[in-house]
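Changelog-adjacent note: as of this version, every example in the card shows the full chain rather than a window. The one below runs 181 residues end to end.
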Amino acid sequence: MAERDGGREGRDRAPAGATASRPRGFRLDQPRPPRRRVLPEWDPEAFGRLSEKIARFLGTGRFIVWMTVVIIVWVLWNIAAPDVVRFDSYPFIFLTLMLSLQASYAAPLILLAQNRQDDRDRVNLEQDRKQNERSIADTEYLTREIAALRAGLGEVATRDWIRSELQDLVRELEGRDADDR
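Full-length structure tokens:
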């Protein structure tokens, strides 16, 4: 019985050597859980798609109409409203700040959208170039095949050639008939 307990005791002990520092439950055949990051992560493609949507909206008449309405309401509110509820007096410094802020965000978003469009155009042009190369190669192959067929047809009796040969034979036979009479 002591031998059995001693054997079991040896198996329950923590391993020694290089594996001794391994925390309990840590497995080498499993990926580690992701670490928490201090900075937020975002998908660059999702950000690019969002910037394209914003840039598309900034380039529409709807945006210009809404921006005009907001500016007119802002100015009228700050001119006609009672002094207590006005938040931006005559030189409209806060309005200027808001428009500058909007422009400072709009310009990089538009540039990002243009860069993404340039990348897409570059890929499309490359695909078009490859398609054109394949089309040219196919056209050259078909041209060679047609030339080979024409060369082969030169050796084959055509309908016009047979007709002309038969007409010559008919004339020759008519000529013999006329001589025999």
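Structural remarks: DSSP finds five helices and no strands in the chain.
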